[in-house]
Amino acid sequence: MTEINQIKSLLVMPKDIVILSHRNPDGDAIGSSLALAHFLRKLKHKVDIILPSECPTNFKYLEGFEEIMIFDLKHDECREKVNEAKIIFCLDFNALDRIDKLGENVQFSKADKIMIDHHLDPEPFADFVISDTGASSTSELVFKFMVDLGYENMIDPKIGSGLFTGLVTDTGSFKYATRPYTYEVAGKLKQLGVDDYGIQNHIFNALKEKHLRLLGHCLANRMEVYSDKHTAMIYLTKQDYKDFNIQRGDTEGIVNYMLMMENIHMAAFIMEQPSIVKISLRSKGSIDVQQIASKNFNGGGHKNASGGSAYAKLEDVLDKFRKMVEGLNLQIIS
């Protein structure tokens, strides 16, 4: 019996199901989770979505957004849901530390665990693993999962809106990490009646005044360009967070502005947070920032989009990054 048929047999009878995704959820985490929840409810399952931390509000256009449970806000209720679940879907993460303290509950749960993810090196905690590092997004894999189950006819605009959100956000509006199948999925969702323009409008044209002022500050006062190394960096201090009242999601996409420069092939966004410094790395073409994140900043991710962190002073992290850039020999392939 193939893995997909085993999963299909698990879904025959209605069950209590929990869908989990990672801390600091992005459009793919939120979109794929909501899409899968709507799909499973069509199969008569009772479904709860639990995320470790709060969601950026620019995704509130997605139906069901307000029903997502946040572990940071409801510890006991979320743990109870996980402990009672008969099936746990783990979306857009492949290591239990990505869901913080909920990882313990998942690890010792007797539920059937199903991972759907596109990141490198999955940990062996799930009973069923649907992993494809060549996929653009987890949303792309969730679409394929529904098709492989034989339920493509159940995908409707409500499900499709979540999936399209994941496709758009994880590919930077189809600028990177795509493959032919990515466009096939997007085309099928468009055929179903998904409002592709409306979704992109909600995501990218919903900025507040403070977002533009923060972007201006980043570009004018916090950007360093290392032209001979084809690299640029922006950093934010704790004081910047106070001055601009930066909340979760407010810095989304800022790192990508540096890659708009013709000669820049790698960009870093370094953020000083209360107890940790976060690093976000992006690149063009052949530059593998996943290796850089893994080697230098205890991180990882994808070839062109990765991240890391450091329990260190901001100035020490900036010095480390600058020294690392000095030693770079980027092989630019146009």
Structural write-up:
The protein is an alpha/beta fold. It folds into two domains: 3-204, Alpha-Beta Complex (inorganic pyrophosphatase (n-terminal core)), CATH 3.90.1640; 209-326, Roll (Diaminopimelate Epimerase, Chain A, domain 1). Helices cover 40% and strands 18% of the residues. It contains 13 helices and twelve strands. It has helices spanning 3-10, 27-42, 75-84, 102-108, 138-148, 157-170, 180-191, 196-204, 209-221, 238-243, 254-258, 289-296, 314-326, and strands spanning 16-20, 46-51, 69-70, 87-91, 112-117, 128-131, 223-226, 231-236, 266-272, 277-283, 300-301, 305-310. A six-stranded parallel sheet has the order 3-2-1-4-5-6, sandwiched between helices. Helix 2 runs parallel beside helix 5, helix 5 runs antiparallel to helix 6 (157-170) and helix 6 packs across helix 8 (196-204). The longest helix has 16 residues, at 27-42. The mean pLDDT is 94.
